[in-house]
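Researcher: Please generate the 3D structure of the following complex. Treat every line as part of one assembly.
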Amino acid sequence: MNVREVPQDITYYEGKKRACYALNDEGKYVIVTSSGWEVEAVVNGLAVDEMAAALEATRQAVLAGAKSPLCYHMERRQMTPEILGKTARLAAFRVKRHLRPDVFAGLSPSVLDRYARALAVSREELKTVPQT
Amino acid sequence: MTTEVTAAGKPFVHVHSAHCESGVTASLFRDKGVEISEPMIFGIGSGIFFGHLPFVKMAGVTISTFRSQPGAVFRKAAKRLGGKFKTARFRNPKKGMDELRRVLATGQIVGLTTNIYWLSYFPNRFRFQFNGHNVVVLHEIENGFRVSDPMLEQPVDCSAEDLERARFARGPLEPRGFMYYPQSVNSSPDLRAASLKGMKDTCNMMLKIPVPIFGIRGMRYLAKKIVRSPEKLGFMGACRELSSVVRMQEEVGTGGAGFRYMYAAFLQEAAELFASEELARLSGEMTAIGDIWREFAVVSARIIKQRGQAEETFEKAGGLMLVCAGREEQLFKDLAQAVGKLKA
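Model: Done. Output below.
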């Protein structure tokens, strides 16, 4: 890749730039910054969009009363019950149970605090999901 | 390139790097007065690799990798360059943070392994739960730390809370607060001997691992799998798998074309070191292979973007990968021969 071929199509890194190795005119490798590549936007976009769609579906499910808000906050942090369980120091099967709204409603403040700390949200936030 | 001052009052030159681990290792060596570039560390530490792990799933897709396992570049490069490093892991996050502060207070900069999701200075769309990102901490500031992240152009501030979460994140490949810093470094390391070791190791990893998911064989295996994937997984499933391959190839921490350009840069430096025309030729060949990897990424992105109405097909993407496999096989065979002839 020549230094002039280093992708600058889009600004994909929110103003930040990434280092690429490319050949200059003398055929030497140098570091050139890249502002973003269309290809990366497509492949990364697929993953980001799917996560966003899944999160939105979960939010609706919480509002409909099918899942507990914990499920939303867990997915927002891209965690699974196993990871969240380890972070909050709870067994994964308990985390899975707490994804049910009826079980979640009966949780003690101490358990809620563990989740709040693990997910970096306040206890009040943990009990709700954004309305929009 | 920007200059910062460490707690010891020494200037620290932040160099924008393509890959976190080789960038951090190079920074730690440079801080000790050893002038060494990122590609050299990458080559000496045998960073280039290929592997496809069909049985490990992260967020629902299998994992492919274009580099050796996290931590290996640092470990191998340190050993081959004759650097003694102090490494530590912690069970207790508080102890881990205290130890970090203690070492920083002595004026030593420290390398850390972190979870990229909790590093809030990154653009949001790159924050995935991935426990293998490396950064250098320069010194403590109020409520946080000054961090030289090799992926960014400039050093940044990171809050103590974020850093603690990032260091002690749970999940696959837990960093458990892994920190490392040099205790003593050979100030004039034998770069030639180290490069030879690195290249030999790389050739073995790419050509001789007797498991068909690593090295050149892994590439062929994955290429065939990609061609079959639309029938097996459906179109969307196949796109997801394909996008995860390209993401590993191009995303944060990879430096474009799955590290092939960085390895070409290493071969170029090695060619000068040995005054070897053969290595210079191989560097050019590696660049050409990198270009094909990039084309593979472009074709893959078109498939994903146009959702099946495109002229580009999974056969074409898989075919390009087979071309890469063939040419890399030849390259590493030639490299193994060339290394045999060179003397340290």
